[in-house]
Each structure stands twice: as C-alpha cells, then as structure tokens.
Amino acid sequence: MTKKIGVLALQGAVTEHLQALNKLGVTATAVKLPGDLDGLDGLIIPGGESTAIGRLIREQQLEEPLRQFYASGKAIFGTCAGLILCSTDSSHAPAELRLGFIDIEVERNGFGRQVDSFEVRLPFEGIAEPVEAVFIRAPYIRSVGNGVRVRASIDGKIVAAENDQILVTAFHPELTDDLSAFEYFLKKVR
Ligand SMILES: NC(=O)CC[C@H](N)C(=O)O
Fold this sequence. Notes:
The chain is an alpha/beta fold.
C-alpha cells in the first residue's frame, strides 16, 4: 500500500517537501488543519522559522493533535526548524513551542551569522553514500538523551539524530536531488 505522508504547511519549505515525496512514489499532502492529520502514516515538520511555525501551530489549534499523532506511534521527520520544534530543549524562551518528541538539546542558529548557509556532502550513519546537505541558518544538537542515536556530525556538532519514531536533521533534505534522507525516513514509517 502507498504510504501517506503529511507535510506541516504553516510556513517554510513546504512545496519542495511535497515534490520530493511525490518523486519517491509516496502520497504527500499538506497539513494545515487538525483534520488533515487523519489517515496519515507519517509527518514532516519542515524548515522555516521555528518561532513562526510554533506560533501558527498554536493559532491553528494543532498542538494537541500533533501530540496525539506522536502518541499514536506514527513516524515524524523534523528538518531544521522542524528539528527545533521536535526537541525537548529546556533552554528556550517559555513562549516558544517545543513538542518534546525526541530527547535532544539544541543550539538555534548554531553555525553562527558568518556562515548563514552552506552545502556539504555529509557522511550519514545508515545511508551508504554521503548525503547532499544544505544548511540554512541551521541549528545543531548540543547533546542527545536516552534512546537517541546520532546519525551525522560536522566538527563535533551533531546535525542528524533519531529515536525509534522520530528523525531530525539540521539540514534541508528537500533542496537537492538527493532523496536519500527521505528514503531513510520512509523506512521508519509503518
Ligand atoms: N532553515 C531553517 O529552518 C532555519 C531555522 C531557524 N534558524 C529557526 O531557528 O527557526
């Protein structure tokens, strides 16, 4: 059966994710309202601006439905701002949303202002070839908790990690023709 994957479509790089999923033969749909989560097998929370996406999640009454989606055991892929939103990080301003789906501490904009964006071929544990990875004002993961496996790092900064249900990358997987990070995520989707 074809897998059905939603892309949270409140702000950020939505269309590119839908296109990447379509190329992999997956049914991809935009998620704007709580009902859009019905019947999905997995979800991508894309890059953009985590504060803006977090605010819109609350405005659209999506926080509780997202927590239920997670509690039902479905796979979720958080990329860049999506990584930040999925984290447990305790050091953020109270008004900012953290969903706590994966036990990681995050450094927002961790690569600094000088290096706003860059592209590398990134060795990734579990993917045979290095992944073509685009970083845009990217966060990195300072530390991971129990049950979290590091998948990729740059100069000691963790940029990809997973637990059994959640995958997070600090890079944007949707901006190149390399779909291997999506294929890796789809293996988590049941
Ligand atoms: N490309 C991105 O998603 C950037 C993330 C952004 N810097 C944030 O903190 O939300």
